[in-house]
Design goal:
By secondary structure, the chain is of the alpha/beta class. The chain is built from 15 helices and 13 strands. The strands form two sheets. A seven-stranded mixed sheet has the order 3-4-5-6-2-1-7, covered by helices on one side. Strands 9-10-8-11-12-13 form a six-stranded mixed sheet, sandwiched between helices. A hairpin with a 6-residue loop joins β4 and β5. The structure holds guanosine-5'-diphosphate. The site of guanosine-5'-diphosphate (GDP) has 20 residues, from α9.
C-alpha cells in the first residue's frame, strides 16, 4: 500500500533535473521542509523567496564565499507545488562542476539524493496526481513524436482518470445497494432484483470494454509498429529503406544477398514510430549464412505488424513472389514496384495497396510515404484521449472486467448476493489499483524506478 505521506515528507531531497552534460542552463531541484533553508545558505538573494516567483541570486563559492555563478531561483510553497512540499529550483549555468557542487552542498546540509522519479512519486503520494497521471509524466518525457507527447499530455491532465471515475462511482453505488440489501435483509429496504443487477453490471462492462480495446492503440502509440521490408535480392529493399530514412545505414551493393543481418531503423509516420526492418532476400539459399538470413527474414515478416513487399518492376514476377502476394492478402501489407526509372511496369495483380517507386530518382517516394501513413492509420488510430498506454493499466482494466463478468454470471444464476459482491469487490480493487489508490509498494517502486533522476 502507499507509504505514509508524513514520514517521507520530513526528508528533503535533491537532484540535478536537467540532463547530464553541459548546457546553457542547469537546474538543481530541492524538495522538502529544509529546501528553503538550504537554498538560503548556498545563494545570495537580493529579495527573499516568495511563492511562485522567480528571484535572481548569486551562487556562493563555499570555500571563498565569492560569487561563483548567477542563477534564477523559483520557489513553490507547500502544498501548492509539484510534489506537495516546499520546492526550490536553482537554475544556474549548465556546468556539471557548479551543479554538482550545489548538490554536494545540499547533501552536507541535510538533504539526500532523490531516487529516480521521486519528485513525481511524491506528487502521487501527496495525492496531487493519480498513478495514471504519474505514468503519463514519464511518457511525456520519453515521447519521440509530437503525437505521443499529445497523448501523454492528455493522460497527464487526467483523461484516463476522468474516464474511470464515473465507472468506479457506479460500481461503488451498486455495491452499496447490494450491501444494504444484505445488511438490512430483515427490514423493508428494496433490494436490487437480479435483472436489475445484470443491467447495472452491463452498463459498467461496456465502457470498460472500450477502454480495454484502446490498449491496442496505446501500445502502438507507445511502442510503434514494425514494418518488414521483404522481397527478392536486388529488388531495392535497402535502397528504399535508406530513402525512407534519408540517411545511409543499410549496406547497398549490386551483388545479391548482402543484407544478411536484419537492419532496423525507426522513422515517425503520422506521429507513430515505425520500425523499418530490412530483411535478406526471400530466395532459396545458396550458402549457409544466406539461409540464416532468409529464415530470419521469414520470421521477421511473421512478427511484423506491417509488410512492404518490394518487387523489381523491370523483371517479370517470380513464382515465389506470386505466392507471397497471395499470402499477404491476409496482412496489413503494401506492394512496391521499384525501379520505375528504368522502364518498370506495374501489373494489376493484387488488391493490396500498390505504389510505383524509384529509390534512385526519388520518384514515387511521396506516394510511398502516403501509403505507409494509410497503413499505419488503418492499424488502430482511433482516438487520442483516454487510451491505456501501459501493460499494467491494461491488466487492471482486464482484471476489473473479469470481476464484472463473473459477477454477471453469478447474478444470472440467482445465487446469493454475497457471491455477486465478492466479484464486484474484486473489480473495484482492480480499478483502485489502476488509478493507484491501492497499488502495492513493489508495483509503485517498479513504476517510479524507471523514471529519470530529477523528475
Ligand atoms: P536489395 O537487395 O533488395 O536490398 O536491393 P538494393 O537496395 O541493394 O539494390 C540493389 C541494386 O539495385 C543496387 O545497385 C541499387 O542501386 C539498385 N537500385 C535500387 N533501387 C533502384 C531504382 O529504383 N532504380 C534503379 N535504376 N536502380 C535501383
Amino acid at each position: 500500500m502507499k507509504s505514509d505521506f508524513s514520514s517521507w515528507s520530513q526528508e528533503t531531497i535533491v537532484a540535478i533535473s536537467t540532463p547530464p552534460g553541459r548546457g546553457g542552463i542547469g537546474v538543481v531541484r530541492l524538495a522538502g521542509p529544509l529546501a528553503v533553508a538550504i537554498a538560503g545558505q548556498l545563494l545570495r538573494l537580493r529579495n527573499p523567496l516568495a511563492h511562485a516567483t522567480a528571484r535572481f541570486a548569486e551562487v556562493i563559492d563555499p570555500e571563498t564565499a565569492a560569487k561563483l555563478d548567477e542563477s534564477v531561483v523559483t520557489f513553490f510553497a507547500a502544498p501548492n507545488s509539484y510534489t506537495g512540499d516546499d520546492i526550490v529550483e536553482i537554475a544556474a549555468h549548465g556546468s556539471p562542476v557548479i551543479l554538482e557542487m550545489l548538490v554536494r552542498q545540499c547533501l552536507n546540509r541535510g538533504a539526500r539524493l532523490a531516487r529516480p522519479g521521486e519528485f513525481t512519486e511524491r506528487a502521487f503520494l501527496s495525492g496531487r496526481i493519480d498513478l495514471t497521471q504519474a505514468e503519463a509524466v514519464k511518457d511525456l518525457i520519453g515521447s519521440q513524436t509530437l503525437y505521443q507527447a499529445r497523448v501523454a499530455a492528455g493522460q497527464m491532465g487526467g483523461a484516463l482518470s476522468r474516464r474511470v471515475h464515473p465507472i468506479k462511482e457506479a460500481l461503488v453505488g451498486l455495491i452499496a445497494r447490494l450491501e444494504a440489501g444484505i445488511d438490512f435483509a430483515e427490514d423493508d429496504i428494496e433490494v436490487a432484483g437480479n435483472p436489475e443487477i445484470l443491467t447495472a453490471v452491463d452498463t459498467l462492462i461496456q465502457p470498460l470494454n472500450t477502454l480495454a480495446a484502446s490498449f491496442e492503440h496505446g501500445r502502438i502509440i507507445h511502442s510503434g509498429l514494425t514494418l518488414a521490408i521483404v522481397g527478392r535480392p536486388n529488388a531495392g529493399k535497402s535502397s528504399l529503406f535508406n530513402a525512407l530514412l534519408k540517411r545511409e545505414r543499410a549496406i547497398v551493393t549490386a551483388s545479391p544477398g548482402t543484407t544478411r543481418d536484419l537492419v532496423t531503423e525507426t522513422v515517425a509516420i503520422g506521429g507513430i514510430p515505425l520500425h523499418l526492418v530490412d530483411t535478406a532476400g526471400l530466395r532459396e539459399a545458396t550458402d549457409e549464412a544466406e539461409s540464416i538470413g532468409i529464415r530470419k527474414s521469414r520470421e521477421t515478416m511473421a512478427d511484423a505488424d506491417l509488410v512492404m513487399l518490394v518487387v523489381d518492376s523491370t523483371l517479370s514476377l517470380a513464382e515465389e513472389e506470386r505466392v507471397l502476394i497471395a499470402t499477404l492478402a491476409e496482412r496489413k501489407a503494401l506492394l512496391v514496384f521499384n525501379k520505375s526509372d528504368i522502364g518498370g511496369h506495374t501489373p494489376a495483380i493484387s488488391e493490396l495497396p500498390t505504389v510505383q517507386t524509384s529509390a534512385l530518382t526519388g520518384e514515387g517516394m511521396a506516394e510511398l510515404q502516403d501509403a505507409l501513413l494509410a497503413l499505419v492509420s488503418s492499424s488502430g488510430a482511433v482516438e487520442t484521449d483516454a487510451v491505456l498506454t501501459s501493460l499494467r493499466q491494461h491488466e487492471e482494466v482486464s482484471g476489473a472486467l473479469k470481476g464484472l463478468l463473473a459477477a454477471r454470471a453469478a447474478a444470472a444464476t440467482n445465487i446469493p448476493h454475497e457471491m455477486v459482491l465478492l466479484d464486484l469487490y474484486s473489480a473495484l480493487r482492480h480499478l483502485d489499483s489502476l488509478t493507484g489508490e491501492t497499488t502495492p509498494d513493489d508495483v509503485l517502486n517498479l513504476i517510479f524506478s524507471t523514471f529519470c533522476i530529477g523528475k
